[in-house]
Amino acid sequence: MEVLKPTEAWAKDWRLATPLPAIAGTTELGFGCYLAADYQQLIDSPLLAGHFEVSRFDIDGVPHYLVVSGRNCFDMARFSADLARICQQQKALFGALPDDLSAYWFLTWVTDSGFGGLEHRDSTLLLCSRFDLPANNQPALSEGYQTLLSLCSHEYLHTWWVKRLKPAEFHPYRLAQEQYSRQLWIYEGFTSYLDDLALYSSGLQNEADYLRALEKTISRVTRNPSNAVQSLEDSSFDAWTKFYKQDENAVNAVASYYAKGALVALCLDAALSQQQRSLPELMRQLWTQHLDGGTPDGAIQAILQNWQLPELAARLTAWVQQPEILPLAELLPALGLSLSFRQPQGQDDLNGPAKETEEGSPQQSAWLGALSQGNELCLKLTAVYHGGPAHQAGLMVGDEVLALAGYRLNQSSQAELLKRLPKQQPIEVQLFRRDRLLSSNMVLTEPPATVAQLTVTDAQLLSQWWAKAASEPQV
Ligand SMILES: [Zn+2]
């Protein structure tokens, strides 16, 4: 047990980690004077003060610091070594570190729960649970650790891809008001595609685990009605008022420029591979051409035109300007994969083969058309899909559904009830909406097939895709 001391004594052995350069006389990781060249650098340089562990690795001679706050039981050496492999991989994508990067800091704030990250020019501030950190003597990549590495990978890629190369309208970034851009699908979407891919191409994740993660992204995008309602350019432009202010109707109205943007990147990569080109090549071209002034709208289409690929340029415009369903099943064979969809067996079922029942065949549960959080009394609806059974019955987000066809519906009964109740005929549903007891008739249906299943159909094409993602550019 740690013994609490008065604040002054407690803070006596604190240290300080920040990407800001120290002025001569200030000891490394010590309190003292740090100098920002301008206001922009000051507000783009987080600092972490307190008790922490530090590890250092170098990429092309540039020091990278991994700082982990507090006192935790975890394998720092492994975290640092794995992170170094990811950084090496992201650097390989562009061929070199940015010229002006003299040091990079991963500042990790560890709590009992919580997750997130924010990119800065020479650092990232990360938030994770202490159980996301790799345990000592833990050979496998736990789900939490894999997600944490993916977050590190994502924020580090932003060092190039949004902190230096950015939309033209962010030059200069005006701090007094919101800045609007139609291009966030390029910057967050491509980054979301490449963060997980770097885990695979650096050898930290195996092929099967990578493909299962990709299936999850495809399933999440596919099952949300918003996929066919809002375009990615609109989602990007409205980020200030919609994506970051999501309400209960978001699953029906707000497309994710992260997840769907990642799938646009996948579609582009697949289509480019048919032309002996690749997404990394396209990204390097954007980096070279637009580092100074930023990317104007249509920058990618202009490169595709220049590569004599006008059809792909037109298709890309449709993918991002219209609320289109992306042609993944058509394009993935170019990467050696085939895509099919099956029906989900529950709201958390997003990937992998269907689970078989004892009798040997998957038993299809009925579909409520809603997401919920269950407890012993009811199911509280957290999302209602437009046009689904719950929506048709007049149910809303926040409703506490108590019974279906006269049977109690709760956390433990829902799976069995939804397997047994009849589909395609009205059954009674009872619910509380705030303090009012209401009833309605609901027609349960079969769920739409939204769970992605990826199968390797051509190992050679697949390995070419991996190789392109993993190799240094030929310059
Ligand atoms: Zn991001």
CATH class designation of the largest domain: Mainly Alpha
How is the biggest beta sheet arranged? 6 strands, antiparallel
Annotation field: number of helices: 16
Low-confidence stretches: none
| CATH superfamily (homologous) name of the largest domain | Neutral Protease Domain 2
Description:
This protein is α+β, with helices and mostly antiparallel strands and 475 residues long. The chain has 3 domains: 135 residues, Neutral Protease Domain 2 (Neutral Protease, domain 2), CATH 1.10.390.10; 179 residues, Neutral Protease Domain 2 (Neutral Protease, domain 2, Orthogonal Bundle); 74 residues, PDZ domain (Pdz3 Domain, Roll), CATH 2.30.42. The protein contains 16 helices and 15 strands. Strands 9, 10, 11, 12, 13 and 14 form a 6-stranded antiparallel β-sheet that branches. α3 links the parallel β4 and β5. α3 runs parallel beside α4. It is globular, with a radius of gyration of 25 Å. Bound molecules: zinc ion. The site of zinc ion has 4 residues, from α5.
Write the layout of secondary structure elements.
Blueprint: H1 7-10, E1 15-17, H2 39-43, E2 48-50, E3 52-59, E4 62-69, H3 76-94, E5 104-111, E6 116-119, E7 123-129, H4 143-157, H5 184-201, H6 207-223, H7 232-237, H8 250-253, H9 259-273, H10 279-290, H11 299-306, H12 310-321, H13 328-331, E8 337-342, E9 370-374, E10 379-384, H14 389-392, E11 400-404, E12 407-408, H15 414-420, E13 426-433, E14 436-443, E15 451-456, H16 459-470
Helix pairs in contact: 3-4, 4-5, 5-6, 5-9, 5-16, 6-9, 9-12, 11-12
This protein binds zinc ion (ZN).
Residues 154, 158, 188, 191 line the site of zinc ion.
